Amino acid sequence: MQLMPTPPPANLDAIFAALADPTRREILSTLSAGEASVTELAAPFSMSQPAISRHLKVLEAAGLVERDRDRQRRPARLKADNLAHAVGWLSDFRALWDARFASLDALLEEMKLDAAKDQTDE
Predict the structure, then answer these.
(1) What are the pLDDT digits (tens) for 47-68?
(2) Residue 26: which residues within 8 A CB-CB, separation 6 or more?
(3) CA 115 remoteness from chain centre
(4) Which of 20, 21, 93, 121 has minimal Cβ neighbours within 10 Å of its Cβ?
(5) Angle ∠(82,84,88) on CA atoms, nearest 5
(6) Which positions ≥6 away from 69 have C-beta within 8 Å?
(7) In whole angstroms, how far apart are CA 27 and each of 52, 64, 93, 111?
């Protein structure tokens, strides 16, 4: 089976680099429930608000988060569309792996039948 992947989005490297960090993945999980301030995002971590802000800048550069200015507050929100692009790109590989696993299943079934036949011939 020839894999014909969808062309990746231009920022795919930035998306995967941003997702490589567990703190940033947790921030995205938190933002999936709705927008949050830096203070709210920093609460579950033992790190400073400036450190969380640096993580948010990486997520913003990857197009996974956007921030607005609301008076003194700068709430962040998830931009799931860019995350969906990365998921879509990865899902192209699912067909490849499904085909490979189906071939392996067929081979294993054939080996079972051969083994059963060999036992009955003895």
Answers:
(1) 999 999 999 999 999 999 999 8
(2) 44, 45
(3) 42
(4) 121
(5) 120
(6) none
(7) 9, 11, 27, 48
pTM above 0.85, yes or no: no
Query: DSSP assignment of 62-107, as one string?
Result: TTSEEE--BTTB--EEE-HHHHHHHHHHHHHHHHHHHHHHHHHHHH
Task: Give the whole-angstrom CA distance, residue 101 versus residue 68.
Answer: 46
Who contacts 60 (Cβ-Cβ below 8 Å, separation ≥6)? 66, 67
Would the pLDDT of 31 be above 70? yes
Give me the chain's average pLDDT, please: 87
Q: Which residues pair with 77 in a beta bridge?
A: 66
Amino acid at 60: E
* pLDDT at residue 104 tops 80: yes
What φ, ψ does residue 70 adopt, rounded to 5°? -125, 90
Domains and CATH numbers, the chain: 12-92 (1.10.10.10)
Q: Facing residues of 65 across strands?
A: 78
